[in-house]
Amino acid sequence: MHVGLLRTVGATTTLYGLAVTTWPGLLAKPSGLAEATGRTAPATRTSLRPLAWRDAACGLALVLAPAGPALRTAACLRIAADFGDAALLGVTLPGRARRRAAVAVSLGWGALSVAGVLWPASGRRDRGARA
C-alpha cells in the first residue's frame, strides 16, 4: 500500500469536498447543473452539498486512518464513491460531453486510490502499511 498517495488523495478530496459544500457552483457549473445565468438553484445546492460532504468525510478518513486495515477500508470507501459517481453521473448528467468528463474525473480519482491500495509495500514511505 502506498500510504503517501492515499494521504494525498485524501487531503485533496477533503479540500474539494469542503469547497463544494461551501460553493456548490464549483461542481454544478462544470456538470451542467447550473442555470443558463451561471447561478446554482437552491434545490441543486441542497442536493450537491451532501455529496460534497461525503467526499470531505471520505477524504478525511484517508488522511487520518492509521496505515493498515483502517486505511485500506477508507480507501475502499473512496473507491466505491468514485466508481459509483462514474456510474451514476455517466448516465444522468445533461449532455454527452459533461457525462464523459464526469466519468473520466471520477474514474481517475478512483484509479489513484486503487493504485494506492495495490502498490507493493516496500521502503520507508510504506512502513507500517503491510497489514
Automatic annotation (TrEMBL):
Keywords: Membrane, Transmembrane, Transmembrane helix
Keyword Transmembrane attributed: yes
Top-rank taxon: Bacteria
Membrane spanning residue stretches: 101-121
Protein name: DUF4267 domain-containing protein
